Amino acid sequence: MTLLEKLAIDVPIFQAPMAGISTPAMAAAVSNAGALGAIGLGATNADGAGKMIAAVRERTKRSFHVNVFCHRPAKAKTDVEAAWLEHLRPHFERHGAQPPQQLREIYRSFVEDDAMFQLLVAEKPTVVSFHFGLPSNEKLAALRSTGITLLASATNEAEARIAVDAGVDGVIAQGYEAGGHRGVFDPAAPDDCLGTFALTRLLVRELQVPVIAAGGIMDGAGIAAALDLGAVAAQLGTAFVGCPESDADAGYRAALKSDAAHHTVMTRAISGRPARCLANEFTQLGSSISHDRIPDYPIAYDAGKSLHAAARSKQQFGFGAQWAGQGAPLARAMPAGELVKTLAVELKEAQNH
């Protein structure tokens, strides 16, 4: 049985589980259209995750995908955090606000969130995927024993082999083009910056598990190209940001339709980990900052979200986490289910040429 048959989906399209952007309404619409809808749980706790899963199930009976973050828990560095807040102070003051007095670790890593783990074991979503690394072998075994399909993001062959050796059912090959957080296991290690298609082909050749291509894929022609390289499916994120079901704010949507879409940047300044974002004031601010001056993820994100809130209160959106991949200029704003159907038609046309 193929992975797509196991998941009972009709088209080889995965909607990326974008934490803070994908919604239960989006996930259900994508799944109902025959693809694999997804929600990201990295920015919520077990209670919030339970409500999101229930909301998806109210809207669809089909397979769906949930994602958790497995980053190394942050290490507080009081001096670095204080200096970072001082560095950001003029930008807060420009928007009539003061920076927080101190920063918090706003998201718990799944590696230490037992409540989230117990929730997933009980709820048994069709697919659970891991970003930034993997949980313990014990957690993996427990999730697998429930029949959940397990996937992991990888940005190179070494990470992919670690995931396969741990027993995942498939690997999401995240190319450097991809929007949002880079799934590197160790953000301090050198990054080979492998592109989606090079990475996909490498992993298809070297691994014995299905590979899902992710990064910069926006239309049916891109999906067809990924399948031609041996991927079983393509995962699209930026393509869904402009959908009405997305939680993207007005500034994010406007930026995606603007010239900024042609200028994405990999930045650590917003969250503390490398992530691809539409060029904006925050990415410009971070362009000359050395990595050691930025607090650990997600502590830095506490400052980033506070600054964005201060600016947004003045109807300024230049400090938002406007995550987007290099294919952003190809984005289309249409309902998520309609987008899936459009992509499926384009895929068929590309395969028939």
Strand order of the largest sheet: 1-9-8-6-5-4-3-2
The CATH topology annotation of the largest domain reads as TIM Barrel
Proportion of residues in helical segments: 40-55%
DSSP summary, beta strand count: 11
Order of helices and strands: HEHEHEHHEHEHEEHEHEHHEEHHH
CATH superfamily of the largest domain: Aldolase class I
Number of structural domains: 2
- The gyration radius over C-alpha positions equals 19 Å
Describe, in plain words, how this protein is organized in 3D.
About 40% of the residues lie in helices and about 15% in strands. The longest helix has 17 residues, at about 80-95. The two termini are about 30 Å apart. The protein has two domains: about 1-75 and about 110-250 and about 330-353, Alpha-Beta Barrel (TIM Barrel); about 75-105 and about 260-330, no CATH class. Helix 7 (about 155-165) links the parallel strand 5 and strand 6. The protein has helices at about 5, 25-30, 45-60, 80-95, 115-125, 135-145, 155-165, 195-205, 220-230, 240, 250-255, 280-285, 300-310, 335-350, and strands at about 15, 35-40, 65-70, 125-130, 150-155, 170-175, 180, 210-215, 235, 265, 275-280.
